[in-house]
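chain below, 211 aa
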Amino acid sequence: MDLAGHDKLRDTIIPEEAHMTQQQQSVVTPERFASGMTWEQYLGQIKRNRERFEYNYDGTIVTDEDVEAFRSLAARADGPAKVLALGEDWCPDVFRGLPVMARIAEVAGMELRIFPRDDNLDIMKEFLNQGEHQSIPVFVFYTEDHRYIAHWIERPAKANAELGEMQAMFEGKEQEERRAAYREFQQGPVWASWRQEAVRELRKLLQEKCG
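prediction:
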């Protein structure tokens, strides 16, 4: 999602039944998954916002309790040993959310592979938001033997609920003023809380799906 996209908010709660594709029909084969970029490779090739990716990576807090929980989950036979990420480097939800996923994968020992959405629309088609929107980032979790577990889309519910407050600070401002205000917002406490809420939501999702 880009700055203009905040003018059209939508619900991003993803019902489980929205993911209709059976794993044996997925275009994400083990070989396709392995062809994705690592976090380091992704950072090395992005054309925009590298400093924002790095800022959000450095700012993500994964507590000792989180580390233990994610490691325990990833170590299970039915746990999230692998995670696929779809994103684009221009998107604020991606340069905030993907670094969070990179930190989690790092501490948990998950294999993270990253794919640009626009070059992989066949993958995106399997994980559309409400079966319609190409929302990013998308994180898709698999077991070591590549069985689908769950996926997460775009941003935490807390961020959706608070986007209206962010829009209010743009009212009456010229475009350059809006850009400056948005940049400042991305370094503030609300933005940071969205990162931490993503950690909480991802942990809760995986604990629910893995029992």
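Confidence is low (pLDDT under 50) at residues 2-23. The radius of gyration is 17 Å.
thats it, cya
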